[in-house]
Amino acid sequence: MAHGDVSWGSRALKRVVDVGASGVGLLLASPLLLIACSLIWLEDRHSPFYVAARIGRRGRPFRMVKLRSMVVRADRTGVDSTAQGDPRITRVGHVLRRFKLDECPQLWNVLRGDMSMVGPRPQVERDVRLYTAVERQLLDVPPGITDFASIVFADEGEILEGSPDPDLRYNQVIRPWKSRLGLHYIVHRGLRLDIRLMAATLLAALSRRRALVWVAEMLAETGADPALVAVARREAPLAAAAPPGATDVVQSRTATVELAR
């Protein structure tokens, strides 16, 4: 097997864990989801769900389900990255995003087989088109609800807050490290790591600082680059970097496209 490949048995076991965890998660979360759906609908009398196109394993599109945290048709603005103070976020949406409740319906996507509990986060087609050849390896596995980057960049909205161009800032200081974290997960993925990442995700809801320390420890144990471990600790401002497979920091949307060719 190539480095980072897993056996059929390991994939089957991962699927069993996915089905069990997502099924139990949906059952436990159903009362909270019902309350959240009611509050979203009462705010503007529109569907509480946001069904968005995302790119899954091997570049196949699928429909990802979230609780709607933005105004209706917010996705038509052409801005993919969301800062904390984005005016498109509703009052209820701010609460949903703070506690990551908007992500809960993705357990349905896991149950269907579109996603896994753990794996690189799925991206919109526009962002996938910007991937370098190295980053396209992120499409070799099913996308997930959580992974290293989901914990490290849980404060993505705060990172982008105040930026005149959130998409550009995302590509400069988040995407390079997020992609590296995803690629590291793919190489070292396994049931034990998945369970630890799911546990760290739950811990982050109680103590993000402790969760970040744990993530950094997991990365160090699996031989991650010291620079990546340092980023995971989030003890210093994020530095701009080139995406994996590129040599230059992204300077514009056009430049991003050129780097990906």
Please, could you describe this protein's structure?
This protein is mainly alpha-helical and 261 residues long. The protein contains eleven helices and four strands, in the order H-E-E-H-H-E-H-E-H-H-H-H-H-H-H. It has helices at residues 8-44, 91-98, 106-112, 125-129, 148-152, 156-160, 166-188, 191-206, 208-221, 226-233, 253-260; strands at 49-55, 61-67, 116-118, 144-146. Helix 1 runs antiparallel to helix 2 (91-98) and helix 1 runs antiparallel to helix 3. The protein is globular and about 50 Å long. It starts with 7 loop residues before the first helix and ends with a helix. The model is unreliable at 256-261 (pLDDT under 50).
Sequence-ordered SSE layout with sheet pairings:
Blueprint: H1 8-44, E1 49-55, E2 61-67, H2 91-98, H3 106-112, E3 116-118, H4 125-129, E4 144-146, H5 148-152, H6 156-160, H7 166-188, H8 191-206, H9 208-221, H10 226-233, H11 253-260
Helix pairs in contact: 1-2, 1-3, 8-9, 9-10
Task: Provide keyphrases for this structure.
261 residues, mainly alpha, two-stranded antiparallel ribbon, two-stranded parallel ribbon, 11 helices
